[in-house]
Design brief:
This protein is α+β, with helices and mostly antiparallel strands and 441 residues long. The protein has 19 helices and eleven strands. Strand 1, helix 3 and strand 2 form a beta-alpha-beta unit. It is globular, with a radius of gyration of 21 Å. The N terminus is likely disordered.
């Protein structure tokens, strides 16, 4: 059975949502006391968000939006774009000064146009105080010069997803916890006809997550604490050499993969191990009645965190999405009221539950959502907001880190080296040159 993008994203957590429900003791659907925003007369809003990989996420967001309209009378139009199209759409809206009022953007994109975004510090502080504080990683993406220029909405966790029976067939009783053992496993899997598949293409999530893990796990970094480009180092060379060996165990074509491709390949039985959000597992469970093979795949799937490299500790990048309000909106109060409503309990609790562990909470009070313990495969994603390392490491987040990521400097460095388009040294030097266009220290 072949999967289209529509098949992949049409997963749902309806059963889980119904079974688990909301178990939080918090505010009612809308704040009865404390911070309140009165929407402007005749206010109408437009939200642009990324296309979901878990249908329950979108379904619940629309339900919550409908509740908001019922309470306030403010109509909200919700549009969506592919993950890869969100970044350029947001940049155009910021530069032109027109477009959606509210938008879900990626990583440190808000730092590319902070002066184009509405200051939501009052709301950010209110929510943080009420719901146990923000996790530091997501907050860094939404904060600029001590102010909230957006609200950290969710962290999309990333983890190893693999076929347990194939790992055992390759001679491994358990999944290796270090990069050396991981390479040996992938070699053995390839020899058994079960190649691995990790994204070397411009996947907003999967491509960036994989490339940063390769670099950081070997002790490399794009910049130092002062923002000086330090990519051309022995640690980076070791990371590239490791990536070259791992690439030999891959299914052909991963250098052109986007965020949907590894999902498709895994569900088609073409690859044995990928790094992905929990969406691929949910897809297998939900669509098993359409294809008996998916029943077997779902039962055989396991998740774990990415292996630890020579650096000696877990260092992973997870994609963070931030809800921003453009300052050109004619309805700033309505937009802030909308985000406040969506972040309040029970709306946020219901959304996390319906997202089936795909969207990890950014406010600490929501960490006890029962969905995280509903399935053993959920555990690898439960602490994504708590453990993530921002992409600007080891320097500060800002325009330079955002632009370097948007330009896929690190992703391209690995892709060119593993495919033989450049030697490891040439790839490092090119990455260094490209990064220096943005970092000027």
């Amino acid at each position: 059975m072949k999967f289209t993008r529509r098949d992949v994203i049409r997963t749902t957590a309806g059963a889980a949502a119904g079974a688990l429900g909301s178990r939080f003791v918090g505010s009612p659907a809308f704040a009865q006391e404390g911070l309140k925003y009165k929407p402007e007369d005749g206010a109408k809003l437009r939200l642009l968000r990324w296309s979901p990989f878990v249908q329950g996420d979108e379904d619940q967001w629309l339900k919550n939006t409908k509740r908001f309209t019922e309470v306030t009378g403010v109509e909200v139009r919700v549009d969506k774009e592919s993950w890869e199209d969100i970044r350029p759409k947001a940049a155009v809206a910021a530069n032109v000064g027109s477009g959606p009022d509210v938008m879900f953007v990626w990583f440190d994109d808000p730092h590319q146009y902070p002066d184009k975004l509405l200051d939501v510090t009052e709301l950010g502080n209110y929510l943080g105080k009420k719901y146990g504080g923000w996790y530091d990683g997501p907050k860094q993406y939404a904060a600029h010069e001590g102010k909230f220029i957006g609200l950290p909405l969710a962290t999309i966790g990333n983890a190893i997803v693999y076929r347990e029976s194939w790992v055992k067939e390759a001679g491994f009783a358990e999944f290796p916890k270090d990069t050396a053992g991981f390479l040996e496993l992938c070699k053995a899997l390839k020899a058994k006809g079960h190649p691995a598949g990790f994204t070397h293409g411009h996947g907003v999530g999967d491509g960036n997550n994989y490339a940063h893990w390769l670099l950081w796990s070997h002790g490399g970094q794009m910049v130092d604490e002062k923002g000086k480009v330090t990519i051309n180092r022995p640690e980076t060379l070791k990371a590239i050499q490791y990536a070259q060996e791992l690439y030999k165990t891959f299914i052909p074509g991963t250098e052109s993969w986007l965020d949907v491709n590894n999902n498709r390949a895994f569900l088609a039985g073409e690859v044995s191990v990928i790094a992905n959000g929990i969406s691929v597992y949910n897809t297998a469970k939900v669509n098993k009645d359409k294809d008996p093979k998916l029943t077997e795949i779902a039962k055989d799937m396991r998740t774990t965190n990415l292996p630890i490299g020579p650096v000696g500790k877990s260092v992973e990048l997870f994609q963070v999405t931030t809800a921003v309000i453009f300052n050109y909106t004619p309805y700033p109060n309505a937009a802030k009221a909308y985000l406040q409503f969506m972040f309040e309990d029970p709306q946020m609790s219901d959304w996390i539950t319906s997202s089936a562990c795909y969207c990890c909470q950014t406010l600490k009070a929501f960490a006890n959502n029962p969905v995280w313990k509903a399935d053993p495969n959920n555990a690898a994603y439960a602490k994504a907001s708590e453990t993530l390392r921002p992409n600007g490491y080891a320097g500060p987040l800002g325009y330079a880190s955002a632009a370097t990521m948007a330009d896929y400097v690190l992703v391209d460095m690995f892709a060119k080296a593993v495919t033989g388009q450049a030697t490891p040294q040439e790839a490092m030097e090119e990455a260094e040159k490209r990064a220096n266009r943005y970092y000027r220290v």
